[in-house]
Design a protein that fits this description.
Blueprint: E1 2-4, H1 6-10, E2 16-17, H2 26-35, E3 39-43, E4 52-57, E5 60-70, E6 79-81, H3 82-85, H4 107-118, H5 128-145
Parallel strand pairs: 1-6, 3-5
Antiparallel strand pairs: 2-5, 4-5
């Protein structure tokens, strides 16, 4: 599960596809998600736009509606606003940060340096290419399990 702040939502950080019929475009999805905590974004392959998703929150069941799908890649999970994720305050927390390196910096070296320096704090670091490749392998394996590949 990924929580996006209002500032992050305002940047429209992901390419959205397959909207619920109530939305005409991605901008409407983002605005509604920011204003109404019941709307979430899920990765392609996780149900259908318009579906209900029920999760176990701190005080019982929490019902969401799928507004749209995000293309596979960076945030593979349920994506909601700050207000939507407040219902999971007892869940273990994590944090994902995207770091932009200067053009002269090698991404693999930077990721390895971050990983080494923060290892005692159980921090993982990877290049964007590694994250995208991992997501691609996962999605290919999932599709293979369901017989979508010859």
């Amino acid at each position: 599960m990924f929580e996006l702040s209002d500032d992050a939502i305002a940047t429209r950080p992901l390419h959205l596809v397959r909207f619920d019929t109530r939305f005409g475009n991605a901008d409407q999805v983002w605005r509604t998600m920011q204003a109404d905590a019941q709307w979430i974004i899920v990765p392609v392959g996780f149900g259908f736009a318009g579906d209900n998703v029920v999760l176990q929150g701190s005080d019982g069941s929490v019902r969401f509606k799928v507004a749209a799908h995000s293309e596979p890649g960076i945030l593979n999970g349920i994506i909601g606003s700050h207000a939507a994720m407040q219902q999971f305050t007892d869940a273990p927390l994590g944090l994902s940060l995207l770091v932009e390196a200067q053009p002269a910096i090698d991404p693999k070296t930077l990721a390895r340096t971050i990983k080494r320096s923060l290892f005692p704090q159980v921090v993982q670091a990877a290049t964007m290419r590694e994250v995208l490749d991992q997501g691609y392998r996962f999605n290919t394996a999932l599709l293979g399990m369901y017989g979508f590949y010859g």
